[in-house]
Design goal:
This protein has 73 residues and is mostly helical. It has two domains: 27 residues, no CATH class; 32 residues, no CATH class. Helices cover 30% and strands 5% of the residues. A two-stranded antiparallel sheet has the order 1-2. Strand 1 and strand 2 form a beta hairpin. The two termini are 25 Å apart.
């Protein structure tokens, strides 16, 4: 299935408008929000030897607050 390019955001759009465009784009590419998991944001690289994120002090700060980094399979 070919991936359809996303359209550019429109000026003055609300968050709800942006979400509707996102959901529409995902649906056009076979992603169903009710069945598939969606995570938005960056995925920083993790250095397991140092037990720290690479070039991401903000993510390291979350580790210091007691958050656990889970292995992604």
């Amino acid at each position: 299935m070919p991936v359809r390019p996303a359209r550019f955001p429109h000026r003055g759009a609300t968050a709800a408008d942006a979400f509707e465009r996102l959901a529409s784009q995902l649906a056009a590419n076979g992603v169903t929000l009710n069945a598939d998991s969606l995570t938005l944001g960056v995925a920083p690289a993790f250095d397991p030897a140092r037990e720290r994120f690479v070039d991401s002090p903000g993510a390291d700060a979350l580790l210091a607050r007691g958050f656990e980094v889970r292995e992604i399979t």
